[in-house]
Specification:
Length: 264
């Protein structure tokens, strides 16, 4: 049976052991000392399938995105499972004073929006860095908050599978549900009542073996991304207790922009 870990179950014998990455001193410890207790006041995070997150080595974690606040949920869940939560962030943020220093010190992964050749080179370098240091990275494959009216995962972008296929790194799907009760998509923060329940489920590594030899093909990357999104949608379906849509929502088909606030 899958393990289930709540945010208040710190001494549970079923908690996955921490990786060597987390047991080493790092800037994450003072940050965690502040962030984890605060998030614990807002959310009661329950985790299923936590043993499926690799204890050591590189991985790409691919969660769904329903609220501006759910990165905190994902980060704390990953930390409680014994890994340091690193996100893929826009390259321009690394040039911002202070913020750029923090991003570099915590090992966040820059994503380039330059030409395809430069972006491909940056992806390969980032992938090699993850493998060399045995780090994981959290990549929201949708690229922004879902535009799907019922908050199901929408069509994904290829960044997560590009990064994974470039270095032979496993893609781990994740679904989370409940953060939108505290901060609805593009809505107002609702802190009361405290300790709202948020459920997180970690899935098995996505089987992308069919796409390994075609990693340079855009068609293959799109197809591989569709497989990842289907797995995420399946996990979310389990959390919500209802079937996910058979096809992913495509913002372009509905006259929507894929970035920025969703217009009502």
């Amino acid at each position: 049976m899958p393990t289930s870990t709540s945010s208040g179950d710190a001494l549970s014998p079923r908690r996955p052991r921490a990786s060597r990455e987390k047991t080493r001193p790092s800037i994450f410890w003072p940050l965690a000392a502040i962030v984890v207790p605060l998030v614990g006041l807002i959310f009661k995070i329950e985790i299923e399938g936590g043993e499926k997150l690799p204890r050591d080595g590189a991985f790409v974690l691919a969660p769904n995105h329903v609220s501006e606040i759910d990165p905190l949920v994902v980060a704390v869940a990953v930390w409680r499972l014994g890994r340091a939560p690193r996100f893929m962030a826009k390259e321009s943020l690394f040039r911002v004073p202070v913020l750029g220093w923090v991003l570099r010190r915590t090992g966040m992964v820059p994503v380039s929006r330059a030409t395809s050749t430069a972006a491909a080179r940056a992806t390969l370098e980032s992938s090699e860095t993850l493998v060399r240091h045995g780090r994981g990275v959290i990549v929201y494959p949708e690229g922004s908050l879902t535009r799907e009216p019922e908050l199901w995962p929408m069509r994904g972008k290829t960044g997560a599978v590009r990064l994974a296929l470039a270095g032979g790194i496993p893609v781990i799907p994740m679904a989370q549900w409940g953060a939108q009760q505290v901060l609805p998509r593009y809505g107002k923060l609702k802190l009361w009542p405290l300790r709202r329940r948020v459920r997180v489920i970690v899935g098995d590594p996505v089987d992308l073996s069919a796409y390994t030899d075609a990693a340079a093909s855009q068609t293959a990357l799109v197809a591989a991304t569709d497989v990842v999104m289907a797995d995420i949608a399946g996990l979310l379906s389990r959390l919500r207790g209802e079937p996910a849509p058979a096809t992913r929502w495509n913002p372009a088909d509905h006259g929507q922009k894929e970035t920025g606030r969703l217009e009502s």
